[in-house]
Amino acid sequence: MSIFLEVALGLASLSVVLLVVCLIPALFLIKRQLDILVQQSEQLKGKLEILVNDSNELVRNVNTMVSRVNCQLNTSGEVVDTVKTWTDRTGHIVDAVGSIIEPPIFSAAEKINLLRRGVVTFLQVLFRPKSN
Question: In sequence order, which ranges of 1-132 are alpha helices (DSSP H)?
Answer without folding.
Answer: 2-127
